[in-house]
Amino acid sequence: MNMCLDCIPCFVRQAVDAVRLSGAPEEEQNRLMQRILQWLADIDLRLPPPAASQRIHRRLRALLPTDDPYFASKKHHNDLAARLVPSIRRRIAASHDPLAMAVRYAITGNIIDLGAKNNVGFGEIYSELQSAPMQPVFGDLNVFKEKLLRAQTILYLADNAGEIFFDRLLIEQLVHAKVTLAVRGAPVLNDATRSDARQARIDEIAQIIDNGSDAPGTLLDDCTEDFRRRFDEADLIIAKGQGNYESLSEAHREVFFLFRTKCPVISRHSGFSMGTYVAANRQSEPHTPGGGA
Amino acid sequence: MNMCLDCIPCFVRQAVDAVRLSGAPEEEQNRLMQRILQWLADIDLRLPPPAASQRIHRRLRALLPTDDPYFASKKHHNDLAARLVPSIRRRIAASHDPLAMAVRYAITGNIIDLGAKNNVGFGEIYSELQSAPMQPVFGDLNVFKEKLLRAQTILYLADNAGEIFFDRLLIEQLVHAKVTLAVRGAPVLNDATRSDARQARIDEIAQIIDNGSDAPGTLLDDCTEDFRRRFDEADLIIAKGQGNYESLSEAHREVFFLFRTKCPVISRHSGFSMGTYVAANRQSEPHTPGGGA
Description:
With 293 residues, chain A is α/β, with parallel strands linked by helices.
């Protein structure tokens, strides 16, 4: 999908966050923001949002005193998630449909998204996890479950740090398949990289690869040849989060998107209301909740 | 108060709204946004937010096909409020402390603020009005009520269209005093002008003046000499909304601010939590709810 005017305030907010998190002195922060606004004035509004965001954050990192301003946030969310997952794992095991329940919790984890808002605290994550079992999943949960169970090879595109611990819980349900987890090729926003996947110990149950790109999404042309081959060959692609949806909503093959709608632009484009749990491919009807547990 | 980096995404969102509401063709909207981003890159970050906003919207209006992009929104909110106030007036009259209750509803009306967010619908206003009687008012409601009852001349600085109908309900309680209602000198955002004050029929119970300025706040240096004289001479100043707080928080005389905290910058500066009902002067302790009904 292409960006629209509503994406611009969000890019500006992301830039303010990154500049703040970098620890640069205040005067320098102001100068940096002025430069970012100048760049934004020249940006091509026909790009998908992750391509615009990639350019902004790549340039920012070149100027900031750190090339990973979200490092501490990512560690914080990984630590938080690590404390929460053992009890969630038990809840999934006790459910009458563990696979559907694991899908729900994987979607819940998608609220840990510092691209969509600038702070996600323990209270918010905890209360979301309490409501997760009752959340209707919109899209095609039953079709998704069938495809999950039939697939022999699954390529799972991760989204954010912290969230990736909840992705692990879903991958734990997929013992019948060979799962490959793909993370970003370099730090951007709070998106998960290899280090986050290892912190979630996903290497014990799946192969971890990176896509070679520093976009907060999956821009296929910007990914490695190896990644693109796996993308073409996997029986099933699971794409987590809004950034992957923004970059793959018109992909040349079927992709199953799992995300929480957190911005009105995605909500309008996908047809799913704000705040909805979504498990859908391009054929899914947005207006009816899917079946499943 | 001065603006901070967090104000910039909000200015950009306001500009997107104004450009959209103007009805300019899409290609033209994109070009306009690019120009706005260029201006913003040059803006002086030491300005108070309403001064920055004033400059942006003044330049915008010069380029847009309309000099009042919020005209239809203001009419919509005035019509909505006109339908709601008769029942609110009865609730105030039936309260055991009508003055405190009228203050609460005047603060509730402050959610109709298209500077702070881009859409405020009937459902949101209606549900806020239901909860208004139970809302604790933070600051110094008792001190404010005493000052209201003692004042012989009151200058009431209005904020937004729609909201101004709820201001009328508070002014109706002030029959003992000579009340002057001041509106903006020209359209900016959805801020109330003379036409909105007349739609709320405030001319029947108070004198209406304008401050001569097109800032979404009260920048004294930018107001008429007549306004400044009244500002100095009134026994009591009531300043509605965040824009008036932003521009008068360091004023040379006492001002009583009535607003709902709707943005983290105001919340940090004033010390009142997000979403709080506030009736406070500069001496008020932010962390305890005031007394009153």
